[in-house]
Every structure is written in C-alpha cells, then in structure tokens.
Amino acid sequence: MIVLVNAESRRNQLMRDMAQLRLQAEVSQLEGSLEIDQPIFPPYLVAHTSVLCDALPYLKQLTQTARCIIIIPLAVIDILDFLKKTSAKAREAIRWLELEFRHGNRYIRAQKCNERLSLTGDSNLKKTNRDVWCLVEIVDCCQYLAQQSGDFSHSGVTTVLISNDLNTCDGSNFIKDMQNKGQCQDISFEKITDFVSKWKGIWKSKG
C-alpha cells in the first residue's frame, strides 16, 4: 500500500513539474519572439466574462497580435453557458471560442483543470453570487499562472481584461482587499479598451 501511495505521489509531482515547465516554455517563447527594445505585453491576458459578451471585437484583435496568450477561465465558460439561453452575445462568444479552440489558435486557450491554486471552488458562493464567484476563480487562475511561470523579466505576468472600470464590477471589494494584502502583486486589472489603445501601436497583426 505504501508503495502505491509513493508511486501516486511521484506521479502527481511529475505532472506538476511538467505543467510548470510548459508554462515557463510558453512565456519564454513569447519573450524570444519579440524584437529587442520592443515593449512587452504581459504574457497572459485573462478574459473576464464581460469582455466576451460586451467587447468581443477587441478580444479578437488581441488574438492576432502574437504577443500574448489569452486564457479563458473555466468559470467564465461556466458563466457563458449559464447565460446562453437568454443572451445572444453569450451565444456568439461561445461559437467564436469553439471555433478558435477547434482550429488550435496557439494564442488563445481555455484554462486547464489543474491551473488553479485552490483544489475546490466555493460552491456556496457560486449559488449566492455567481459573478463574484467567477471573479474569485479568475484571480485563483491568475495566481497559479503567476506562480508557475518562473521569473518573467519584464512586467507582470497576468492582466485581467474587463469591460468596465474595476470599481463598477461585482466583487471589486474582494479584489481591493486582496491587493491591500499584497496577494495580487503579479495581477493587474485593465479595461480592454484602455489596454488595446495603449498597445495598439506595437501590434503586429497576422492577418
């Protein structure tokens, strides 16, 4: 029995090590593809549900820059699935994501099941306030990416893209509390319109 437990422990550690190496390779590849002295995108842009529903054209532009990897959190996919019966925008976002994932666009992907720090989500919070739950899950994903990506030699590792000012988002107090505690050091929050405007001059579209 002890042998089986040790074997399982070694297998789990190997999987964690491989996941960390994969993320570090993603970041290194992005850094290596950029020209010297060129401004650097955060390697991971994490999309909030509001961006997919209210600012999808901007997100589509970002997938063409070849300067970052856009992560769609599993919680965001869950929210889109919840909204699809009543929201045409959610249905449009789902169709676009399915197409991108099917075509294997290397610059946009869904969060993997193991890309989280907490082992279980807060099911009670999901029942009482789905929007805040989603934001908590997004931050958890970002913290994992920041922790596993190694030493990024430029700016922060992850930026959460939102469609409105953070102050107007459900869960903004939760985020501010984490920021005050120093728990979001490698995570920034930006309106996607502001982000696109800031970086537009250095984009290199691939078509």
Reported for the largest beta sheet, the result is: 5 strands, parallel
Number of strands: 5
Strand content: 5-15%
Text of the CATH class of the largest domain:
Alpha Beta
Helix content: 40-55%
Outline type: globular
Q: Judging by the overall fold, what is the CATH architecture of the largest domain?
A: 3-Layer(aba) Sandwich
**How many separate domains make up the residues?**
2
Average pLDDT level: 77
Q: Give the strand order of the largest sheet, numbering strands 1, 2, ... along the chain.
A: 3-2-1-4-5
Indicate the low-confidence ranges by residue numbers: 12-21, 31-37
CATH homolog superfamily of the largest domain? 5'-nuclease
Distance separating the two termini: 56 Å
Structural class: alpha/beta
The oligomerization state is single chain
Taking all Cα atoms into account, the compactness measure Rg is 18 Å
Continuous helix count: 9
CATH fold field value of the largest domain: Rossmann fold
**What letter string, H or E per element, gives the SSE order?**
HEHHEHHEHHEHEH
